Amino acid sequence: MAFQDWMKQANLIGGDWVAADSGETIDVTNPATGDVIGTVPKGGKAEAERAIKAAVAAFPGYRDTSLMDRCALLWKLHDALMDNQKDLAELLTVEMGKPLAESMGEIAIGAQYVRWFAEEARRAKGEIVPAGVNGRRILVTKHAIGVVGMITPWNFPSSMLARKIAPALAVGCTVVAKPATATPYSGLAWGALAEEVGFPKGVVNVVTGSAKDISKAMMDSFDLRKITFTGSTEVGKELIRGSADTVKKVSMELGGNAPFVVFDDADLEKAVEGAMVSKFRNAGQTCVCANRMIVQSGIHDAFVKRLVERTEALKVGDGLEKGVEQGPMIDMDAVEKVEDFVADARDKGGAVVTGGARHDKGGTFFQPTVVTGATQAMKFATEEIFGPLAPVFKFETEEEAIEMANATVYGLACYAYTSDLGRAFRLNEGLQYGMIGINSGLITTVEAPFGGVKESGLGKEGGSQGLDDYLEVKYVCIDGI
Length: 481
Ligand SMILES: NC(=O)C1=CN([C@@H]2O[C@H](COP(=O)(O)OP(=O)(O)OC[C@H]3O[C@@H](n4cnc5c(N)ncnc54)[C@H](OP(=O)(O)O)[C@@H]3O)[C@@H](O)[C@H]2O)C=CC1
Ligand SMILES: O=C(O)CCCC(=O)O
What we know:
InterPro entries: Ald_DH/histidinol_DH, Ald_DH_C, Ald_DH_CS_CYS, Ald_DH_CS_GLU, Ald_DH_N, Aldehyde_DH_dom, Aldehyde_DH_Superfamily. The protein has about 475 residues and is α/β, with parallel strands linked by helices. It has two domains: about 5-255 and about 455-475, Aldehyde Dehydrogenase, Chain A, domain 1 (3-Layer(aba) Sandwich); about 260-440, Aldehyde Dehydrogenase, Chain A, domain 2 (3-Layer(aba) Sandwich). The chain has helices at about 45-65, 65-85, 85-95, 100-120, 160-170, 185-195, 210-220, 235-245, 270-280, 295-310, 330-345, 400-405, 420-430, 465-470, and strands at about 10-15, 15-20, 25-30, 35-40, 125-130, 135-145, 145-150, 175-180, 205, 225-230, 250-255, 260, 290-295, 350-355, 370, 390-395, 410, 415, 435-440, 455, 455-460, 470-480. Bound molecules: NADPH dihydro-nicotinamide-adenine-dinucleotide phosphate (NDP) and glutaric acid. Glutaric acid binds near residues 155 and 253.
């Protein structure tokens, strides 16, 4: 097979691959070349409503399959992902731009989520709780929540769906997924994979097209009991508001502004290594990306020197080319946003030590960039960069570092490099973040609960907690026994 075999140019609704009612389509482009690689249906309200109806119809039958039958389907799904890893990774790189090695990793972690949740579903245990009075028994049981709407972003178009779809399918929910318009094929491929391994018709539905219309149909449906979203905080807030009318359960994985704090006592090489992976993975387009390098004065200059050396050595290019470490940005808006951050920093006294401009490869390629002399007045102090720009702030004391790190409405991931164990514990207590990497710049893993606090979101993905988001808890009181 080749990646084109997974490039479904239709929507999956109730087991059928279909066009939009209007016949209208949307072009999908490769950000590395600007070439149109295909089209997808421009679906909307009617298509989404049909997908919800199909998921509602499929729910009771699927929920009532035995746990082992569901697990067996998930194991097959895992194997199908890994058997087709290279093709799915190429498809991801062609529509999104990230280096092929990163896409291979994304498909692999998606498969791991599937396996993890097939295992965790077997431990979705209830409880028998001691009752306060004799003759009474209290049982707590867990149940699939029902039909789940999933809206996913372009930056991890496969793995962001993986960690929603895997727990949902593991516990017996059915799914209506809406992938990002820029990168729809990796989402549609989940539909094709589910179909191939034998999930019943209507269990997985994938609709592309107008985000507003599709999400409105999801919001308006009483039958769709949960909405799970990864993307910007702005859209997340809209979805939380929209969910209120039918009181849906929500999971929101939203924006971040991760501080990457380096203390004088850090291992310099390790800190720079962590900074590189945290900052430049996916061209800086991850919600857990280091947004602010916050570096203690004693190690500041040495850190900047090594960071700049490593940044200048990065190979930029088409993600399909061998050895490329940074691909293009997703689109021109993303490029302009980074340019704006650079111009703002320059205006306010920052120094662009390397990069700072569009790459001579053209299109949406941007130079890996380091800015020093960053201050709280600069836009990136409070806004999410989502690009290959590393601003370096300086600090003196631990208290100051914690205060700077927390000075944002976001609270997704943060990182700190230190060799002082006591400090590591103090940081865990003081930093207002859902995830903390101590001496690690890459913390995403299926075994751990991924998610933020403050305006970075609600709920967890991965870990045992990631299953709870798709379960409802019931309490049964049995009296007179
Ligand atoms: N937390 C994260 O991982 C992500 C954070 N971001 C942040 O958001 C910024 C903007 O990126 P962007 O792609 O515009 O992110 P969005 O939040 O707009 O997009 C994410 C998903 O939401 C959909 N969507 C967009 N508008 C609505 C809406 N009104 N109602 C329901 N769904 C909607 C999109 O669909 P469609 O593609 O059709 O517009 C896509 O599927 C980035 O620069 C970054 O800062 C972005 C992506 C991921
Ligand atoms: O950017 C995101 O929304 C998720 C990041 C996943 C990862 O760290 O691999």
